[in-house]
Write a structure and sequence with these properties.
Elements: E1 14-15, E2 19-20, E3 22-27, E4 38-40, E5 46-50, E6 66-70, E7 73-76, H1 80-87, H2 89-95, E8 101-107, H3 113-117, H4 129-142, E9 147-159, E10 162-165, E11 181-185, E12 188-192, E13 197-198, H5 202-222, E14 231-242, E15 249-259, H6 273-297, H7 310-314, E16 324-331, H8 338-352, E17 355-356, E18 359-360, E19 362-364, H9 366-390, H10 403-418, H11 429-457, H12 466-478
Parallel strand pairs: 3-7, 3-16, 8-15, 8-16
Antiparallel strand pairs: 1-18, 2-17, 4-5, 5-6, 9-10, 9-13, 9-14, 11-12, 14-15, 15-19
Bound molecules: adenosine-5'-diphosphate and magnesium ion.
Magnesium ion binds near residues 114, 228 and 259.
GO cellular component, one term: microtubule
InterPro entries: Kinesin-like_fam (IPR027640), Kinesin_motor_CS (IPR019821), Kinesin_motor_dom (IPR001752), Kinesin_motor_dom_sf (IPR036961), P-loop_NTPase (IPR027417)
Keywords: ATP-binding, Cell projection, Cilium, Coiled coil, Cytoplasm, Cytoskeleton, Flagellum, Microtubule, Motor protein, Nucleotide-binding, Phosphoprotein
Length: about 500
């Protein structure tokens, strides 16, 4: 059991084993593949990059020209089906057991992030991770009749540090409508104002996803923003209660499917105005994302910079730490994009080093706990009644005592102390405790009575009241007697 570094202070979770962030690379198919520059290893896990020497820098220079990256998998010419099996299936399956999971696509614009995450909406065969994850969740629910599992979804877009609800029930007008805020509470992080939709079947979830995709496109026209310049987070919230009512634990989890904004550095091409602003926000949020994930993997780090940008803040309880984390880096296979490809692969290999400690989010259902305790209590009382009747004890009441019963015990205690009662019969634990309690009551009453009687007879002097003491001493020395000041003084 351990308290998590990245959030939920209220409850503890069972620890899993340490695990690395999984980093995959997906290469976008092309007829113009740079065979002399990009080479795949036979294990389908490594990729080598060979950059031709920049002759403008002179014949002899120390510029590195060869890189070798070892990842968890290199997906080239991979079908959507294979990508899902390799990348997402396990994380989604584990979400049903209470593990948060985050799957994100990283890479330059056009490299295939949205294709990987959402897929081709018009072609079912080419659907991406998102619809497949929803399918898997609902299929697994059917396979688990022992649990009552609820599924909710939300779709958030972050553009230039502004939050947009892609599933807002209100007509889409723009950012001025009820600005959303990221709020943290003991249960975790949530986005105030973001609509979360209960979906009881796959079809509902699909139509929400479709609505979100449409809103994303509409918003990009009405607001004149490029959809590849925003981060989109589709979240599936799972809550599973056992149908066995005696089971008080329940689990919650989130699956975040993140389509990140294009990672290309536009600065070099002399961009300005809106494009520059977008690029600045994206560069910042992507580097904060990297910093946060790396900090989470560092055992020695206590402070994780989540609040530096909306992306990491919104994902606070779903990044690294106790989650299953999967990164898909989308790259081009063409020579012209090699520099960006290289930078994307470097990002992937840095992420691969980060370790996480996936843990189950387990909570207790307070209502069920009370009900179960009540049941248990009733059962124990019955058990006692049987026990008493078997041992021929007169019917014993185990309920809390009322005032009359307490007064009776008080009287018994007094009579016992006076000697008019020889013994007090033992009935049950509650009664024994009350007898002791009444001894205390009688004792303190008697002490008060004694003190009152003494006060009537003697004057009591505070031993710190030096003026009174010296007056008394003077008085006594006149009488030729000496007494200690803290003793009782006679009149
Ligand atoms: P990104 O979201 O990274 O900007 P997209 O996913 O929109 O890129 O991809 C750009 C274009 O390339 C789209 O038309 C998409 O359908 C196509 N595409 C990307 N990856 C693949 C792939 N693996 N197979 C077929 N088409 C792809
Ligand atoms: Mg895209």
């Amino acid at each position: 059991m351990k308290r998590h570094k990245n959030g939920n202070k209220q409850y503890f979770t069972k620890m899993g084993t340490r695990k690395k962030v999984q980093a995959f690379v997906r290469v976008k198919p092309t007829d113009d593949f740079a065979h002399d520059m990009i080479k795949y290893g036979d294990d389908n896990k490594s990729i080598d990059i060979h950059l031709k020497k920049d002759t403008r820098r002179g014949v002899v220079n120390n510029q590195q020209t060869d890189w070798s990256f070892k990842l968890d998998g290199v997906l080239h010419d991979a079908t959507q089906d294979l990508v899902y099996e390799t990348v997402a299936k396990d994380a989604v399956s584990q979400a049903l057991d209470g593990y948060n999971g985050t799957i994100m696509c990283y890479g330059q614009t056009g490299a295939g992030k949205t294709y990987t995450m959402t897929g081709a909406t018009e072609n079912y065969k080419h659907r991406g991770i998102l619809p497949r994850a929803l399918q898997q969740v609902f299929r697994m629910i059917e396979e688990r009749p022992t649990h009552a599992i609820t599924v909710r979804v939300s779709y958030l877009e972050i553009y230039n540090e502004n939050l947009f609800d892609l599933l807002s029930t209100l007509p889409y007008v723009g950012p001025s409508v009820s600005p959303m805020t990221i709020v943290e509470n003991p249960q975790g992080v949530f986005i105030k104002g973001l609509s979360v939709h209960l979906t009881s079947q796959e079809e509902d979830a699909f139509s929400l996803l479709f609505e979100g995709e449409t809103n994303r496109i509409i918003a990009s026209h009405t607001m004149n923003k490029n959809s590849s310049r925003s981060h989109c987070i589709f979240t599936i919230y799972v809550e599973a209660h056992s149908r066995t009512l005696s089971d008080e634990k329940y689990i919650t989890s989130k699956i975040n499917l993140v389509d990140l904004a294009g990672s290309e550095r536009l600065g070099k091409t002399g961009s300005e105005g809106r494009v520059l602003k977008e690029a600045t926000y994206i560069n910042k949020s992507l580097s904060f994302l990297e910093q946060a994930i790396i900090a989470l993997g560092d055992q020695k780090r206590d402070h994780i910079p989540f609040r530096q940008c909306k992306l990491t803040h919104a994902l606070k309880d779903s990044l690294g730490g106790n989650c299953n984390m999967v990164l898909v880096t989308n790259i081009y296979g063409e020579a012209a994009q090699l520099e960006e490809t290289l930078s994307s692969l470097k990002f992937a290999s840095r992420m691969k080093l980060v370790t996480t400690e996936p843990a189950i989010n387990e909570k207790y259902d307070a209502e069920r706990m009370v009900k179960n305790l009540e049941k248990e209590l009733a059962l124990l009382k019955q058990e006692l009644a049987i026990h008493d009747s078997l041992s021929n004890r007169t019917l014993v009441n185990y309920d809390p005592m009322d005032e009359i019963q307490i007064a009776e015990i008080n009287s018994q205690v007094r009579r016992y102390l006076e000697g008019t009662l020889d013994e007090i019969d033992i009935i049950n634990l509650r009664q024994i405790q009350e007898v002791f309690n009444q001894f205390k009551v009688v004792l303190s009453q008697q002490e008060q009575e004694v003190e009152a009687a003494l006060r009537r007879k003697y004057t009591l002097i505070d031993k710190n009241d030096f003026a009174a003491i010296s007056a008394v001493q003077k008085h006594l020395s006149k009488k030729g007697r000496c007494q200690q000041p803290w003793e009782w003084q006679g009149p």
